[in-house]
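This protein record is not my work; I was only asked to verify it. Take the sequence as given and treat only the tokens as open to question. I have pasted the whole thing underneath without changing anything:
***
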Amino acid sequence: MLCSNIQTSASVKNKKIKRVTFSQLLLRMFIGIVALICVLPVVLIVIVAFSSESSVAEIGFSYIPKEWSFEACRYVLKFSDQLIRAYGITIWETVFGSLLTVFITSMFAYVLSRRDFKLNKYLTKFVIFTTLFSGGMLGSYLINTNIYGLKNNLLVLILPHCVTAWNTVVMRTFVRSNVPQALIESAEIDGAGEIYTFFKIVMPIMVPVMASIGFMSAVSHWNEWQTAYLYLDSENYSTLQLVLIKIEKDIDFLRKNSGTLSTEDILALKDIPSESARMAILLFSIAPIMIAYPFFQKYFIKGITVGSVKG
């Protein structure tokens, strides 16, 4: 009888603990509204991409179009050869660029996190200085082309962006907050060198922040088009974003210069989707990142919060 009373009282306490307060309810409602605001534009992009051009012209962007159509996607897929080649270059840039960023930045951050490193303070100040001042686009272009010889070289998509001050500071803070100094000292006492200590002891602890930095780097590389536009002249080296921008510019050019076209070209121009094609271009651009994000979400949140708040 006594045991049953204790269990009953414990269950009542658990129910009281799990009860949602009014402030928590308001917070959840607020987060739900913010999430809905973020999701609705993406849903609209998908709907408009599969809407007919006449429906978009008549009622504008709508969640309930009058007519569904695959014409916009078919028009974008007419450039399938360019898209496949651009997807390959962009995937190569995203994968290898992100891996190189994580690898080099993690080693640099580990060095800066060591308090016994004599140049620690000077290098940290140098890194922070680069967040305030830079050589600008012209200076970067002259150095990358004249000194490093990266003109018309695919490595220009990776090397200039492999280390940034923000990523370095976040990783350095994460290492200082989550890797005990006693752990490194014990490894040194056991005879472990710096390379063994970093790869076998420190790097496994850095997995959350490495995953978050890697994902941000992947998104940055995936959306990159300006570097390819400035440094790569060959059409075969165009990234996905640059190809999609060129397709959109072609549509705008045809629309603006329709008065100089022949009758046959004008009739063909009427069949080319405009607004729905823009949404289809956006869909081709953001779909891979949307698919990849859920796999990195856990590490992304943990790495950013721990690496930027603690320490």
